[in-house]
Design brief:
Layout (H helix, E strand, L loop, with lengths): L17 H4 L6 E6 L5 H10 L3 E4 L1 H9 L5 E2 H5 L14 H8 L5 H9 L7 E5 L3 H5 L6 H6 L4 H11 L5 E3 L5 H10 L6 H30 L13 E7 L9 E6 L11 E4 L5 H14 L6 E6 L2 E7 L3 H9 L3 H4 L2 E5 L5 H8 L1 H16 L11 E6 L4 H7 L6 E4 L12 E5 L2 E5 L12 E2 L7 H14 L7 E4 L4 E5 L5 H12 L7 E4 L7 H9 L3 E4 L6 H11 L2 E4 L8
Parallel strand pairs: 1-2, 1-4, 2-3, 4-5, 11-12, 12-13, 19-20, 20-21
Antiparallel strand pairs: 6-7, 8-13, 9-10, 9-11, 14-15, 16-21, 17-18, 17-19
Helix pairs in contact: 5-9, 9-11, 13-15, 15-17, 19-20, 20-21
């Protein structure tokens, strides 16, 4: 039922003593919500404790139909709802009731003078803007009509005056607030009010961030980056520590991102993720998603120490593991197919990896000296797992098993952020690769069709190696990786050492240009037969001449893949 304007609203005896105003007993509430989850139960609980309820529009109808007595806001303000509901709570008698300081005699006097009744609790949530713009067919007009104005204003007014007003924007809080009121004579503690006020300001900040981000995509040129970015990060979990035990760490997701990405992956088994696990999983995910054929990548400290594509996922995993079993210890694995039983059996069989793959590595590379530890993997991420495969992998007690069903959805639509002291760097993601028609053979020797296929594969691998990056590949398999060196020649030497005998006949990819011919001289010494690199050095002619001297084929892509 709808309450008529009460005698309380004549302004003559609205107030307790000044001392009473400092108390948090809820006498009057304004309830106006878009998300009506739990609102009937909440309002009924308030009414049972004698709380007078003001309400608007659809919320008032919902509560009235449930038999809860409410007073329409327009009956209190004396001003009708208008402009298709755009104006209903934007009124001094609403905001004065929320902002007035109950222990300030001047505020109290003004409130009495203008018939402003204190409102002790505000339950408001906002128009569903994010849900509206998530629809692929949404129009600008629909989006704009779902930008709430009165709701955020009330939340902010109530939150600012948290000493006297309880503000609720999250329906999940309703039961706890009712429980606290029932055990404290209708009061809400100051600590609770503070936490609710903080939540309200966080809520309006997220809301405005979502609006500004969406409008930026509509109003600004897609070629440029927006002048202001308001990221909205929501904590997923606390971590035991950051990169090191003396650092605090937590994992957040970017709310409103086009792709769920790693933050949307589900952990199916294993210990909790560490800060460094998450970083390596992100690298493994990004690398695995760059290849179309069944592919396995093994990442260690953000760099691939094994990467291969093959007709089957099992073969790809075996080839990747045989790249560098020493570095693979304690690594993270990315697989770009649903994991089948055959792959899981190899993955979980330490004896097979030690007795079959390790001898293969030694025979192929010629490395008989390296001390290879047990075949231990920290984590694996894939689009999914067949039931039998998951059962097999779960036998590895410490293996963190991650599944990301939406493997590529929305990829590339979000910006990339990297923090620096006092700010952040922002860029569009690096998802482009040189097309075969864009390649330019610059040497007298032409690569064979087989070599060209391997060169394109190696170019993709190099994108995922920290610069300066040099990779050696045999077919569609990484055999030597030199990463993160200050000198490109040092990366070359490391890649050659890792490849061993496998360097002979391999192809080489560099993530950036060769600044001088010494890189080509070193490349020739590795035994590689063809090189792919961006080109663009002022000494390109010298570099090309060196390749011709050594009888190497060299291809320019015109596309650099630096990764710092």
């Amino acid at each position: 039922m709808t309450r008529a304007v009460s005698p309380l609203y004549n302004g003559s005896h609205l107030f307790h003593s000044l001392g009473g105003f400092a108390m948090a007993r809820i006498a009057r509430a304004l309830v106006s919500v878009s998300d009506k989850t739990g609102v009937v139960e909440f309002a009924r609980g308030l009414a049972e404790m004698g709380v007078e309820i003001l309400s608007t529009g659809g919320t008032a109808r919902t509560l009235t139909e449930a038999g809860i007595e409410v007073t329409p806001v327009e009956a209190y303000t004396g001003f009708p709802e208008m402009l298709d509901g755009r104006v209903k709570t934007l009124h001094p008698k609403v905001h004065g009731a929320l902002l007035g300081l109950r222990d300030n005699p001047e505020h109290v006097a003004k409130m009495q003078e203008h018939g402003i009744i204190p409102i002790d609790l505000v339950a408001v949530n906002l128009y569903p803007f994010r849900e509206t713009v998530a629809r692929p067919d949404v129009t600008l007009e629909e989006a704009v009509e779902n930008i709430d104005i009165g709701g955020p204003a009330m939340l902010r007014s109530a939150a600012k005056n948290f000493r006297f007003v309880t503000v609720v924007c999250n329906p999940a809080r309703y039961p706890d607030i009712l429980a606290e009121m029932r055990t404290s004579g209708g009061e809400v503690s100051e600590q609770t009010r503070r936490l609710l006020a903080l939540e309200a300001f966080q809520h309006t900040a997220r809301y405005d961030a979502a609006i500004s981000a969406w409008l930026a995509r509509q109003f600004l040129s897609p070629e440029g980056l927006p002048p202001l970015i308001v990221p909205w990060l929501e904590k997923i979990q606390d971590l035991r520590y950051g990169e090191n035990p003396h650092q605090a760490g937590a994992f957040y997701r970017l709310v409103g991102a086009a792709e769920t990405g790693l933050a949307g992956a589900v952990q199916l088994h294993g210990k909790e993720l560490s800060f460094n696990n998450i970083l390596d999983l992100a690298s493994a995910l990004e690398a695995a998603r760059d290849f179309d054929e069944p592919t396995a990548v093994i990442v260690k400290h953000l760099n691939p120490c094994g990467l291969a594509s093959a007709p089957t996922l099992r073969q790809a995993f075996e080839d990747a593991w045989a790249t560098d079993p020493l570095a693979a210890f304690g690594g993270v694995v990315g697989l770009n197919r649903v994991v089948d039983r055959e792959t899981a059996e190899v993955f979980a069989d330490n004896d097979y990896l030690a007795e079959v793959i390790l001898p293969r590595y030694r025979q192929e590379s010629g490395d008989e000296e390296a001390t290879v530890l047990a075949a231990f993997v920290e984590a694996v991420i894939a689009p999914g797992y067949e039931p039998e495969a998951l059962e097999i992998l779960r036998e590895k007690k410490n293996l963190r098993i991650m599944a990301l069903e939406d493997w590529r959805g929305g990829r590339g639509e979000d910006l990339e952020f990297r923090s620096v002291p006092g700010g952040a760097l922002v860029q569009t993601p690096d998802l482009r690769f040189a097309e075969p028609k864009e390649l330019r053979v610059v040497t007298r020797k032409q690569p064979t069709a087989e070599q060209m296929e391997a060169l394109l594969f190696a170019d993709r691998v190099s994108k995922h190696v920290k610069s300066n990056a040099i990779v050696l590949c045999q077919g569609k398999r990484l055999v030597g990786c030199g990463a993160g060196q200050m000198s490109r020649i040092d990366s070359m030497l490391i890649a050659a050492r890792k490849a061993g005998r496998r360097a002979a006949g391999s192809v080489l990819a560099s993530d950036a240009m060769f600044p001088a011919r010494d890189n080509v001289d070193a490349a020739a010494q590795t035994g590689c037969v063809a090189i792919i690199q961006p080109g663009g050095s002022i000494r390109d002619d010298e570099v090309i001449a060196a390749a011709d001297e050594h009888g190497l084929a060299m291809v320019f892509t015109g596309l650099r893949h630096f990764w710092h």
